[in-house]
Amino acid sequence: MRTRIAAAVIACAAVAAPASAADGWHGKVQAPGYRGEVFPPWQHGANSDVADRGFEFTVPEVNSMADFHGDVSDPKLVLYVGGNYFFVMAPLVKTFEAAHLKYKAKIFWETIPPGLLVKQMDAGGKVTSGNLTFTAKADVYFAGLKKVKDLISQGKLDGPAVPYVTNDLAIMVAKGNPGHVAGLKDLGRDDIKLAMPNPEFEGIARQIKISLAKAGGDQLEKKVYETKVKDGSTILTHIHHRQTPLFLMQGIADAGVTWKSEAIFQEQAGHPIEHVDIPADLNTTAVYAGAVVHGAPHPKAAQAWLSFIQSDEAFAAFEKYGFKRYSRQ
Asked: Where is the signal peptide (predicted)?
């Protein structure tokens, strides 16, 4: 009996992998022989804001909650961060705490997709991952500027929206680019397997669809997000900033569109990942913004973080990964 193990338990947030995941392992039952560091979390504890880590229990691919950071027992600031810059959070928190010592080791943050963070807010901050259920009510929510403004209009966030950086798209590929992907049009090829963000709750999908239409019209967009989804050659991710590079490293996919900053992080981390730049005329830029969550448990801390996120010190952490500073037009 074949066991679909390639990504059945992804070390992110207890997300089940697509049925076709076994193709990356050729359907073979085998003991894990890969390097554990290929699986998240990739930062070896740096993204956990705690003074005492206690008993360590992290098993790559099996027990590893990579998108929940810090001590949830008594936080003084809870951040819901669209996961596109999970790798920037550790230096951001360190810099913030240096200027606000009372929050030292008291910040908890999550980096799951923006749409899923909204679902958690609607559930009163309660979330279940595997067999663990906990509650962490958000103080500040971060996503694309449009999404933040929409949530303000719905009364879920308190304005104003605070924009701070921008980001561009890129095509992430395995090292050596085995699929010979040269641009967006190649994503429509029948021989290319894709890992693409899910439009249902990943805001990046909207920008990707715009860029696909720029490159190849509605036909290319539908090929990538409809035809190839139906035939199994496009896998829709649940946590694209974790799953896309993992699927590439496992050989489950040949390419996937992500934010350029995510590819830069993977390359800097030494993973066998590269990226293909998307020309400016075909690219789509996102503006990241945040706002205080309505009824935030720690409103003063929330305002302090929003003031900090626009600072020169904060931008220095973003710039390392290719983000650009937001400037009002």
From this structure: 1-21
